Amino acid sequence: MVRKEWILFFAALLMLCSYGIESASAMVPYKTYFYDYDGEYLVSPDAYVPDKVLSAKDMGMTDKGLNQPLDLFVDDHNWVYIADTGTNRIIILDEQYRIKREITEFVHEDGVTKDQFNSPMGIFVSEEGLIYVADSKNARIVVLHQDGSLAKMLNAPDSDVFPVGFIYEPSAIGVDPSGLIYVISKSTNMGVIALNADGGFEGFVGAEKVVPKVSDLFWKLVTTKEQKSRTAKSVPTEYNNITIDQLGFAYVTSSAIHARNQYSALVNRDKSSKHAPIKRLNHTGIDVLKRNGAFPPAGDIQTTDKVSRFIDVALAEDGAYSTLDSSQNKIFTYDDEGNLLYVFGGYGAQNGVFQSASALAYQSDNLLVLDKDTSKLTVFRRTEYGDNIAAAIHYRKIRNYDESIAAWQRVLKMNPTLEMAYSGVAQSNMRKEEYKEAMHNYKLANDWNHYFKAFAEYRKEIVSKMIILIPIVAAAILWLVYHFFKYAKKVNAAGWRKPGKRTLWEELLYSFHVMFHPFDGFWDLKHEKRGSVRAAVIIVAAVMAVDIFKQLAGGYILYPSDWRVIEIYDTFLSVLIPFGLWCCANWGLTTLMDGEGSLKDIFIASSYSLVPMVLITVPVTLFSNIVVLEEQQFITFFTTLALGWSLGLIFIGVLVTNDYSPFKNLYTSAISIVGMGFIAFLTVLFINILQNMNTFFKTIINEITFRL
């Protein structure tokens, strides 16, 4: 861990000294950062810096300023549309943010009746230039032409599926390329309302299924109607905003997910859509958002007292997107795979931070953010660092892998700690069939799933070159194993006829006989003295050594990291202490239950039972260096086999040593396990008492010394 801290330190120094870093010169009031695979907070160069902050006066509004602007949209011509909720109007700006039109009222289809908005909260502009306004308090969708004239008005939909007392209050709107209208209605938890072009109800999209817990079903059976009425009901999550991409997929956000559930899903790297604050829905309502990053797109990881609350999504080029977090006024940007690229923003009164950010949208490379409290529009300009990230993603999309690698390498010169950049280089390596280089870069990115895909391809290359040598090596290993077991069998057979004391080597080799003939073997260990304490100690030491060897030599499929800290203390806790507790607890109990084995007998029998763990773990550890994820079940199988074999031998060994029946042995073994916990508890309690006594006497001595 110390080495990693030093590398991060020097990487940070390199970032500060790199050319093209605009953070220092721009003096922005926030830190741009990201999280690595381990969830560590790392500062990065600024991807966006504030270019200008515009008030209503700066936009050319002379009569009155903005008041509680809640939504923002940028059309194909880079014109900007603002839903100014507090003044009940729609503001249209040109690409230079100068006012072009202000829509405060419109004329009905009869050509006479004038009408006005009442809290317009959402806005969308189609490719044809039609302006869709979610006229919230009037419970309708107003569709306008660019000149402000009415195209059509879509009143509240009518359907039997709406519950009694349903209040239609549209707060966000989007239209897909086919003309289907998606509406978010406040306080509606049944999903997104889908309407046809004429306003007819088509159904709900994206409603989250609520699966009741077993405990909820139980209480539902035993509680009265009155108690049920006072019980909080499990309801689907309600959405707060929607953004439609060019393919017709709907990005929806929710800020109503229980904070504990959202944070748990985030830190546990939950790739499902359950408790996800952002989703990408297809036309059937299925979430197809990719969550292939180290953590799912859910905002800040290292939060102190609250989770991120997403209220808007802005779609960038090549599938990247930015989300607006209302809880911290921050902007999180992800690529199309769900990898976090950078985070910036925050609370404050300076340019670039907000009092209460309410909406965001991309205008080409610029990012626009509305602040409903200050009623200002902030224009962020993309930096060289942000340009290089965007270029790398773009070149990868169009399969120009050489340019993509070059762009990612420029990113790494500015930010050597960005794991996403290494992953990007590795993806291009894969496309170019440079599998060894891809493995190296995926390892630097901590992207182990893709690492094993690259390793599988690299292994194919190696196997094809060594196709003749592999069977020869395998045959040689089998020949050695066969002859070693044959030799052990010969030595063990000679031991039957050998009088007197046996050598340590003979005692160790007898463990092979115990493995395959446990009843005879354990009988001879006790009555014929074929084993000894010294051999048993060596076997236990070998188990501990193998545990350390597994940590050092195990493949990435076992320990996906190059930073392996070997703690002997952990080996003691996982091997020696449980083994010692077992021997003591079992001997203490069997002594009281007519057991014939001494502590020495139980120790020797239990030690010899651990030999399968040594013999199987070593080759499995070596084998783990050449397997891929799809073959992990072989590692699991043989590891389980070693453990199960040893536990079975321990059971038989105690049975034979104490001359128990199987049932009595099972009974005493179960109680012995309970006794292990009891002994551990008493030991910890005793140590704690000694520590307190030590502190007490030290305090008395110090007090006496002080007074003298």
Provide structural commentary.
It is a single chain. The chain is of the alpha+beta class. It has three domains: 2-12 and 400-465, Alpha Horseshoe (Serine Threonine Protein Phosphatase 5, Tetratricopeptide repeat), CATH 1.25.40.10; 23-382, Neuraminidase, CATH 2.120.10; 500-689, no CATH class. 43% of the residues lie in helices and 19% in strands. The chain is built from 19 helices and 27 strands. The strands form eight sheets. A four-stranded antiparallel β-sheet has the order 3-27-26-25. A four-stranded antiparallel β-sheet has the order 4-5-6-7, with no helix packed on it. A four-stranded antiparallel β-sheet has the order 10-11-12-13, with no helix packed on it. Helix 12 runs antiparallel to helix 13. The chain is elongated.
